[in-house]
Write a structure and sequence with these properties.
This protein is mainly α. It has 30 helices and no strands. Helix 6 crosses helix 9 (159-182) and helix 27 runs antiparallel to helix 30.
């Protein structure tokens, strides 16, 4: 192009520059950012302000750490969370290997058995364990029939039942994290090690395990951080000696005179959670929260990963050296079938532990008995009739349906827009923006619920449907962003560019090119945002009212005061809902784990 021709081009007027800015996809991030700033970040900041509003800024925190009840509960919470994370790792690794080594229909069935419970409400999964471990439950009946127990034992309301229930609830999170790392490994590395004379144990300890450490670390930290804020499972399965820190926040929330101290309890839990996430992010990158690409670098590039582990001592290498090669050589003499059967047995136990409680609850929903017992004395639909004819249950159901629909609309509208902005724009700091968008998943629900309560009181939103829908959308938005972003990454941007070159407006390009391509992902995101709101309990406990009951609140009240098969009916209906949703969303579930 000549200088004259260059000078002849029309100048970029302010109107042209403004028009180009409006077309910038980065602007699509603004609605979600504004929503989160108002209803998510500002309440947390206000919570922190109230916690330091005493005579001195530290007076309430000094009380938290000086009263044995709270200090011991905090230590107990960290101990239980760490133990649960270790148990999930112990059981989750062989389960991830079992999925990876299976083929065809078997792999699909095992993966579905792991994924299915992950999307069922924590309250329902905990209730299933209450049924399984109850005095009239199948475990007690089996042990009594085998002569292990002379009479039904008290298997509930102790530390063991808390650890079992929390491990079962969080185990899918660990399995999915490790499997994402195992699935990307280059199998030629293991074959090369075996060809060099290494036994199965040595191959695992020196090749497989080091290369999957990113997935192991991500799963361990996600389970630990999630367990820190657990409230439902310890309340239902534990005893007085098993109270976790989040339980004190909910218990004290009814006392208005505790303002300041109550907020300090929440801030302590929040700071510990953020500190753990911050330290983890320093070593793993914050992408571990949403399964980003940085975690899979070692697995996606095994040759480079092997070189790094060869050039520096990894934790696995140091452990192997501490044990000593003689022991590894001795273990390496074990037949390969030993490892194979270990994986099969432990993976089978995990699958049974996740699915069996749900199956038992579904069978009990057809029981003719007036109390929880298994097996049912006879088959009956009496409890289904009671559920559908009870005005309180049906009112709660319709409330949940309406709130979940509104919440899904909010989450999908804002989340899909944000996903477009983060994938299609060239804005700097995408990792930081993505961290903000998905950060609600790491904030303990009791902390978020308490912070929102103050905001909702100010705007008279407590007990309103739109208020609950907006609050639930805080957790639904990260789900939408991750799934839709994964779908967008599979769309060739050149198709959109070609449509734009031929004169199509941005709206036309989206409607005719982008939207049809991401429709399956958008549908899956809509369903899971709906399901998240439909199952939400903790926020509803803080923000609902006596005139607005949701289905989880009704379940919570009945589980605490009366256990009957109506609860099994509600659980069965939700399981069927989840199964149908997963069947429709299966094509995009795997891709959603790979968003960068």
């Amino acid at each position: 192009m000549t200088t004259a021709a260059f000078d002849a081009r029309p100048a970029r007027t302010p109107a042209v520059r403004l028009s180009q800015r409006i077309k910038d996809p980065a602007l699509l991030l603004l609605p979600a950012a504004g929503f989160l700033a108002f209803i998510y970040l500002s309440p947390l900041i206000d919570l922190s302000r109230i916690s330091v509003s005493g005579p001195t800024w530290s007076v309430y925190f000094e009380r938290v750490f000086s009263v044995p009840l709270y200090w011991e509960s905090l230590l107990r919470t960290m101990q239980i969370s760490f133990t649960v994370a270790c148990l999930c790792l112990l059981l989750g690794y062989p389960t991830a290997l079992l999925i990876h080594r299976s083929r065809g229909v078997a792999q699909v069935l095992i993966a579905t058995a792991i994924v299915l419970p992950y999307f069922i409400a924590i309250l329902i999964r905990t209730y299933a364990w209450m049924v399984l471990l109850g005095r009239n439950g199948p475990v007690n009946k089996l042990m009594t029939a085998l002569g292990v127990f002379a009479e039904p034992a008290q298997l509930l309301f102790n530390r063991g039942s808390v650890l079992l229930g929390m491990t079962a609830v969080l185990l899918p999170l660990m399995v999915l994290s490790i499997y994402a790392s195992v699935a990307r490994l280059d199998q030629s590395l293991a074959r090369a090690a075996q060809a060099a004379g290494a036994g199965p144990i040595a191959v695992f300890w020196r090749v497989l395990f080091p290369l999957t450490l990113p997935g192991v670390g991500a799963g361990f930290l996600l389970v630990f951080v999630t367990a820190l804020g657990f409230f439902i499972t310890p309340t239902l399965l534990g005893g007085p000696a098993d109270q976790m820190f989040a339980m004190h926040i909910t218990q004290q929330a009814d006392f208005a005179t505790w303002e300041g101290f109550l907020q300090s309890l929440a801030v302590v839990l929040l700071v510990i959670t953020l500190a753990v996430v911050g330290i983890a992010g320093r070593f793993l990158g914050f992408e571990f929260i949403w399964g980003g690409s940085r975690l899979s670098d070692a697995a996606a590039k095994p040759a480079a990963g092997a070189a790094r582990f060869a050039s520096r001592r990894s934790p696995a290498s140091a452990a192997a050296d501490a044990i000593g090669w003689p022991l590894l050589r001795l273990a390496g003499r074990l037949p390969e079938s030993f490892g194979t059967w270990t994986v099969r047995v432990m993976g089978g136990v995990v699958v049974a532990g996740l699915i069996l409680p749900i199956v038992v609850v579904m069978i009990i929903s057809f029981s003719s008995a007036t109390y929880l017992t298994f097996p049912p004395p006879a088959i009956s639909l009496r409890w289904y009739e009671k559920f559908f004819s009870d005005s309180n249950w049906m009112a709660a159901f319709w409330n949940s349906l309406a709130i979940a629909s509104m919440s899904a609309c909010i989450a999908v509208t804002l989340g899909a827009s944000a996903a477009m902005g983060i994938v299609r724009s060239r804005v700097k700091g995408k990792a930081a923006i993505m961290l903000l968008l998905v950060s609600p998943v790491i904030v303990p629900p009791v902390v978020l619920g308490l912070s929102l309560y103050t905001l909702f009181l100010r705007f008279d939103l407590v007990g309103s449907m739109w208020g609950l829908a907006a609050a639930h959308a805080i957790g639904g938005l990260p789900i939408v962003v991750v799934i839709v972003a994964a779908s967008l990454q599979a769309v060739d941007p050149r198709l959109e560019q070609a449509a734009a070159v031929h004169g199509a407006s941005p709206v036309t390009v989206f409607a005719t090119v982008t939207l049809p391509a991401i429709a399956p992902g958008l549908a899956a995101a809509s369903f899971f945002a709906f399901l998240h709101s439909f199952d939400e309990l903790v926020l509803s406990l803080f923000l609902s009212s006596a005139h607005l009951k949701t289905l989880p609140l009704m379940l919570w009240a009945d589980i605490n005061y009366q256990l009957n098969p109506v609860l099994a009916v509600v659980s069965t209906l939700e399981v069927l809902l989840v199964v149908g949703g997963i069947a429709l969303a299966r094509p995009v579930l795997v891709r959603s784990r790979g968003v960068a």
